[in-house]
Amino acid sequence: MEYKKQVQRLIQEFKTDFLPSVSVDLVIFGFHDGQLKVLLLRWKNTEDWCLPGGRIRHEESLDDAAYRSLHGRTGLTEIFLQQFHTFGDTRRYVHFSQEQTMLRLGLAEEDLQEFSNRDVSVGYYALVEFANVVPTPDFFTDECRWWDINQVPPLLFDHNDMITLALKTLRRQLTYQPIGYNLLPEKFTMPDLQQLYETILGQSLDRRNFQKRMLGYDILERLEERKTGGAHKAPYLYRFDKEKYEKALADEILFVG
Amino acid sequence: MEYKKQVQRLIQEFKTDFLPSVSVDLVIFGFHDGQLKVLLLRWKNTEDWCLPGGRIRHEESLDDAAYRSLHGRTGLTEIFLQQFHTFGDTRRYVHFSQEQTMLRLGLAEEDLQEFSNRDVSVGYYALVEFANVVPTPDFFTDECRWWDINQVPPLLFDHNDMITLALKTLRRQLTYQPIGYNLLPEKFTMPDLQQLYETILGQSLDRRNFQKRMLGYDILERLEERKTGGAHKAPYLYRFDKEKYEKALADEILFVG
DNA sequence: AGGAGATGTGTAAATTTTACACAATGATAC
DNA sequence: GTATCATTGTGTAAAATTTACACATCTCCT
Questions:
Q1: Are B62 and A21 an interchain contact pair (Cβ–Cβ within 8 Å)?
Q2: Bases of chain C with protein Cβ within 7 A
Q3: I need a labelling partner for B112 at 20 to 30 A (CA). Which of A145, A215, B64, B168 fits?
Q4: Which tens digits make up the pLDDT trace of B147-194?
Q5: Is the minimum CB–CB distance between A57 and chain B shorter than 8 Å?
Q6: Beta carbons within 8 Å of A86's beta carbon, 6+ residues apart
Q7: Which of B19, B59, B89 has the CB atom closest to A120's CB atom?
Q8: In this structure, is the CB of residue B234 within 7 Å of any atom belonging to strand D?
Q9: For A118-173, how does the pLDDT look when each residue is reduced to its tens digit (9 = 90+)?
Q10: Looking at chain A, which residues constitute the CATH 3.90.79.10 domain(s)?
Q11: Top CATH class, A2-174
């Protein structure tokens, strides 16, 4: 059976070309329709969802492995990607059944060792521009799609915990770094940006104070252009001044408290 | 040679009982004489220093492995220990020579594989009460002692980077969590606490405003007792109200900006 | 007994954050 | 074509927070 050979070759490759015991998992955030989304994968022949992830090649740095997976699932390069925690609880495979995996992949039990040993997994979160992503399943999965952050189903492994912690870290990031550069389209309106902040923080903000504050950080450039097509007064379009944005990122100025 | 057998048994144990490719490193902070200190180890028969660290048993969680190492080097239990970053650069062994290690340990080259492969290492930092620590070398080291944070020598691997990032994370922690519970003796004076904050932040703070702020957090209990023996006016002693302290830790109230 | 040096304490100024309202615009409905 | 509705653009005053700052007290040392 062609498929089975492929699986076995892949597992063999895991053993020879990749670091054992360590993996990388990704919480990829997107923003669409005023909702925060995460990209999830569905295992072949099942209804089990999980986070995208990957393994680390022997000659590859941890960050590069994360970028490689991210690129594979989204088609994107050059996006914000940040490590937020490493998960190494012995019980992190509690939502994972070896027998089910066997069925899933049509494997013999001995092939499964690779999957049922506890790995330590390094969690990264990424901020990506929703519209630019081409969700792409990997070898072990049938489907890759966005889920609303508030409607994520129970996931395999400890992946629900990962999303929770990634979101917490993202919220904290918001307090000392600007956000939006890789999450919004190039041109966006002030209400767009505010909605992003409100969605991440889970609270509403004063419109005027928000604008004052954002402009005060001196990372935005207002364009002549306005956004048309809305049913109301046309708002101005803005874009990030990349240099100043990068500087604010590095300087870690105190942002929204 | 008895010693060599011991080494080989240990290396064998690494292969059978511990996760390959992953390790844990510890930045253990102490506070003494108004200086922030880190605990370092010196490799046997060398002048090379590095951070304490360890490996993870197959049936052991990542956090437990870190606690185990911490206990081994300090004799302490129940201390503040927090993961801050995972290091997985392919070049993180650049300050490490395989030949030198051979000399150090008196090993054959084939035994060394365990040391010269790149591991991914999870960095933890700990805050401990200086006076309670009994610095204890491990099998590979001759000496374990405190170093002033400003006088750390060039270390093996990427351990200097680890200290830098641990300190950065500690400074950030200071902005949303109280600190001092496991770093100061049970009873301490307000100037002690202030000195701790100033040392970590690397800047001096106003005495009156500091006190006002600290008392405002409502995590301190002022004792009747005063500290005697100083050459000056006897300052009050304080201690942390553990419950309120824990609550402040969990709530992540905004602290010093 | 006096002096040196550190501690204990409160208030006013400056800054930052928050609250808040009305005119202008553009699509849609009539 | 005109009125309507929902949304955008904009500034100021009050409140809260943060900062700056000085003098009396205590303890050991000389």
A1: no
A2: 4-11, 17-21, 24-28
A3: B64
A4: 999 999 999 999 999 999 999 999 999 999 999 999 999 999 999 999
A5: no
A6: A120, A121, A122, A123, B62, B83, B86, B122
A7: B19
A8: yes
A9: 899 999 999 999 999 999 999 999 999 999 999 999 999 999 999 999 999 999 99
A10: 2-174
A11: alpha beta
